[in-house]
């Protein structure tokens, strides 16, 4: 993918859709991820590239990442390795799209500092349920370190991941929930409260209960 040195390095901007992430990751590979909730404990390495690889492996088990500049061009190469593949590496086009979609989110969370604002739209896209829950855990970790994240999601796994993060230490006032309920041409904004055990005081209809509704029809 083409690199943009001024945007990714001079401005430190990943891009609206994360399009400068690989170039940013390449040039900041050795930058230390600060001690705190976002630092992944599976590796002793503290550099951004190693930490991003650890989190990607959390979302998609058995996967690692590499970023490298292509000599003589304005292009940066991203590749994935998979456990048990005997060292074979794959281009993003030959791997599940969820990996490339998730990488900018991982890097944004790892580099978010206190006071930063991160906007995430459907961070669960293309991830399996476990990965969706772990993605919510990463976002919650960034919030615990003082960043503000505004997350739009359609996934009960993401919401449950946030609830689990609260039960494990994120304070309820760091996890504010809202959902919209249609009302003709308008909509009501409903804001469930979440307690220290991750329990909600009200449940969006058709969200958490859809699995039970479907199973009831299958068993009837």
From TrEMBL:
Pfam families assigned to the protein according to its UniProt record, in alphabetical order: AAA_21 (PF13304), DUF3696 (PF12476)
Residue ranges occupied by any DUF3696 domain in the UniProt entry: 170-218
InterPro entries in UniProt: ATPase_AAA_core (IPR003959), Bact_Antivir_Def_Nuclease (IPR051396), DUF3696 (IPR022532)
ATPase AAA-type core domain mapped to chain residues: 78-160
Superkingdom per UniProt: Bacteria
Name of protein: DUF3696 domain-containing protein
């Amino acid at each position: 993918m083409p690199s943009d040195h001024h945007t990714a390095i001079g401005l430190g901007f990943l891009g609206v859709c994360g399009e400068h992430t690989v170039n940013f990751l390449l040039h900041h590979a050795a930058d230390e991820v600060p001690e705190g909730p976002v630092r992944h404990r599976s590796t002793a390495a503290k550099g951004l590239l190693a930490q991003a690889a650890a989190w990607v492996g959390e979302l998609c088990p058995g996967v690692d990442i590499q970023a490298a500049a292509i000599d003589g061009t304005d292009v940066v190469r991203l590749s994935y390795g998979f456990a048990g593949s005997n060292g074979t590496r794959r281009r993003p086009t030959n791997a599940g799209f969820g990996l490339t979609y998730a990488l900018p989110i991982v890097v944004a969370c790892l580099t978010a500092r206190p006071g930063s604002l991160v906007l995430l739209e459907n961070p669960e896209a293309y991830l399996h349920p476990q990965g969706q829950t772990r993605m919510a855990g990463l976002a919650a970790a960034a919030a615990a370190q003082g960043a503000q994240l505004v997350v739009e999601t359609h996934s009960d796994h993401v919401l449950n991941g946030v609830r689990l993060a609260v039960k494990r230490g994120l304070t309820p006032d760091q996890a504010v929930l809202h959902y919209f309920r249609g009302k003709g041409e308008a909509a009501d904004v409903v804001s469930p409260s979440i307690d220290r055990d991750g329990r909600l005081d009200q449940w969006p209809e058709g969200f958490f209960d859809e699995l039970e509704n479907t199973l009831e029809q299958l068993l009837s």
